[in-house]
Amino acid sequence: MPSFPRAAAALFLFAAIGGAHAASVTSVEIRGLDEEMEENVRTSLSLVDAIGTELSWRRLAYMLHAAGDETREALEPFGYYSPRIVVERVRNGERRVVLDTAADDGDASRESAAATVASVRGTGDAGDARDGQAPLSVVVTVEPGDPVRVRRADIAIIGEGHDDPYLRQELDDFIPRQGSILHHPDYEASKTRISRRLAERGYFDADFSARRVAVTRAGYAADIELVWTSGERYDMGPTRFVQTPHEVVDPGLLERLVYWEEGQYYHQGRLDRLRTSLTGLDYFSRIDIAPAPEDAVDGRVPVEVTLTPARRDVHTAGLSYGTDSGPGVRLGQERRHVNRRGHKALWQLDYARNRKTMTLQYRIPAFRWLDGWYTASLQGADEQTDYIDTRRIEFVASRSGQYSRNLNLVASLHALRERWAYEYEDDDDPSTPPLYRYATFTYPSVRATYVDLDDPLFPRGGYSGSLLLRSGIEGAGSEAGFIQMHARAHWYLGIGDSDRLILRGEVGRTETDALIDMPPSLRFYAGGDGSIRGYEWREVGPRVVDADEDSFALGARHVITASAEYEHYFRGGPWGVAAFVDAGSAHDGSAELRTGVGFGLRWQTPVGPLRLDVARGLNDPDSPFTLHLNIGTSL
Fold first, then answer.
1. What digits encode the pLDDT tens for the residues 31-60?
2. Reduced 3-state DSSP string for 551-619
3. 8 A C-beta contact, residue 112 and residue 163
4. What totals of helices (H) and strands (E) does the chain contain, helices first?
5. Strand order in 207-216's β-sheet?
6. Partners of residue 569 on adjacent β-strands
7. What is the pTM assigned to this prediction?
8. Residue 444, preceding bond cis, omega within 30 degrees?
9. Average pLDDT over residues 545-557
10. In whole angstroms, how far apart are CA 425 and each of 83, 422, 433, 436?
11. Are 471 and 483 in contact, with CB atoms under 8 Å apart?
């Protein structure tokens, strides 16, 4: 039958059916596709949007017919242009095909509306009109067939950008390549990436001179022609800082962060580094950095930096509790900018029943060599626990510098005065003063911290670590000569969509002939969270036993610990579980390793994961379970 009479018959049937009777679609099932394609088809089907809605038979017939076109169009982004699509409706356990599209006929999905309507309102459904409501389900079965592959791909940049090695690398990485499936999301992502890369490298006049994708359905082939005209590359122009609504620091201070010279080639990475430097200052709540190519003079692009000052003072307050320190309170205040030269000041008090710490700090910007600070800090500490009575005061002068995006360096000079006495040496005679030891140490130190993580709050890839070196010379400000090294490292590895493996290691060594003269703050300890779970804080290592059979840590020359932890999060959500094993030792001679195992609960928060762990040491059969609670990512 010619197409016109068939269409006329369809219209006749539509008119005859009318809208007096209704049907209701309860579900739409899609078969034969992977998860990504199925989701795209589902969001494209008008039948899915109509689930639970009363439809006239005329409207239902149209939507069943349209399901073929909608499904085919939803598969085209994945490179499948000629699928076979079978649409069935199921009612009272009876299945009936309402549309069957041949895979080798791109127009076969356009079955006549009359045939579709007749299938829906066939003789077996004569009672549907009388029922008024006819709930049914729909099954869409798809055979994707052969995909369309790229037969020819002409991807090029003409103009000055043609010889840019970074842009040439982007062209080499373009997908889909010749012979690959024409996957539209990959094509669009590659096209967008190159356009963005042109702008990032200063080709602000770049535009398309050719942009075409031709698909030959019969040959399952596609030809891509994609050509950019880059235009000239712009250079860096003047940089202007605007602090609004008022200035809080001298603009000359900020200008020192501009490490490029006017006239050097433009690159977005330069602006990104400037943004990182400004963020690290913590002077501003909002930072907007925008190039203005429309205002370029002689090919030089000016850069406008608009800064909104942050609140000048930051106050902190909170409660704390530690097994050894007892209940306590934490208070603090930081002044983000003391004066227009950008100086900072900080005080912080940690006052607990058995442990008290007071810190004063003053920082001065140091931008002439590397982004960083000159810092002077004074800290006093007092600890009165069941096993030690110690007080110390320490002055530290340091210079920090951000050597690269990942590496931060700190050089310091320390002046330490410490007094300590162990409770096990107390003879319980109130008239006898405690047997205090005193130590004075003046020594330099160097610390390097490296962080390369994909997400600082919840990393699933990358690693971080730190290395500390410090040394003192007897008679040159120190009561004992020593050389000390302490290194830590973390490695994060994402597994699947919701799991990750965390490996941690620590090693520290001290070379000295007078360990007994080394104060407790310069010795190594092991046990507790971040060390060996399953053991109490500082439980592992050289110890002494008092008259009550209680043992106390003395600190050691060396330390070595390692940990492996596996985390699983449920359905990619915020809740997860973990299992881990920790091992290590603090020791003077040969290491006597201790091992702890356990499990934990994880909850992702805006400031990092909340970790609640229960662990037990394996080396002592009477070892109790220990509980560990922490928040944030360990770096």
1. 999 999 999 999 999 999 989 888 888 888
2. EEECCECEEEEEEEEEEEEHHHCCEEEEEEEEEEEEECCCCCCEEEEEEEEEEEECCEEEEEEEEEECC
3. no
4. 10, 29
5. 149-158, 221-229, 207-216
6. 576
7. 0.73
8. no
9. 74
10. 86, 6, 11, 10
11. yes
